[in-house]
User: Fold this.
Amino acid sequence: MFEVVHKRQLSDAVFEMGVRAPRIAGKIRAGQFLILRVDEKGERIPLTFSDWSAEEGWVRFIFMRVGKTTHKLSHLEVGDSLADAVGPLGVPTRVDGLGRVAVVGGGVGAAVAYPVARAMTEAGSDVTVILGARTANLLILREEFEVLPLHELLIVTDDGSAGEKGLVTAPLKRLAASGAIDHVMAIGPAIMMKFCAETTREFDVPTTVSLNPIMVDGTGMCGACRVSVDGVTRFACVDGPDFDGHAVDFEELMSRQRVYTEEEREADAEYLRECECHR
Ligand SMILES: Cc1cc2nc3c(=O)[nH]c(=O)nc-3n(C[C@H](O)[C@H](O)[C@H](O)COP(=O)(O)OP(=O)(O)OC[C@H]3O[C@@H](n4cnc5c(N)ncnc54)[C@H](O)[C@@H]3O)c2cc1C
Ligand code: FES
Assistant:
């Protein structure tokens, strides 16, 4: 069950993995995610579908190795299996009727931005993608974006090793200020989404963000993923993950993401000591 049928390393810490999941594959829409467990005793982690085939019965996701569970996941090989996976979860991203859209994908957020940008182009939107990373070798999916029928693909790196030097907010500001876009979809680290929303607020450009709070059950029962939007508590797993970026309380989101930092660090260190893989 949930056999790994594909694995590809995209950068030092980022992997693409495909698993056999015919019942899930038949229902997915862009922006939705699954919650998986690597093994029976493992924690549940959410990952967004990056690609899928209903005909062939597989789903793919792209993940960055950041802690214990993503380390374990990166050690699975083709032929191994996940303990379980549930999905598709979350409200699909709105992809039609948005006019001229800028999709911003930062870091591993590009994995979520890719199926969203693809679905928007299929729905007839005029899509500009701003793809950002700290440095050139952390840019992922560039070739995949290049073959989409985009209006433009803009590459940005913090150190200028590929594309424009700087942050994704610089080209975003130019597009918003020139009136070239009607909507923005920003996906990446919370701090990036916060500054994208700050940038577009000035020009009154509606901005959707894809939030990534800690999730446990993914069904709206545990409350782990609660976020404040316009002063109202919402559950990202069932009400989101997409929300109006101009209404999200990003400070609260970021402080809640850090609640278990110490425990996460210890769990990862212990796992690495036990598996002796040093990665
Ligand atoms: C809806 C959604 C979609 C996501 N899609 C992707 C994706 O496509 N690719 C990707 O690389 N990452 C994605 N993430 C983040 C991913 O779930 C975390 O990186 C992963 O859970 C880290 O687990 P860990 O044990 O390896 O790291 P840990 O050391 O446990 O944690 C590292 C950091 O990851 C976050 N995190 C930890 N546990 C969870 C959890 N149960 N739920 C959410 N975040 C957690 C926290 O911010 C934490 O500080 C998504 C998160 C959400 C909420
Ligand atoms: S993850 Fe439990 S309520 Fe959303």
Remarks:
- The chain has a mean pLDDT of 92.
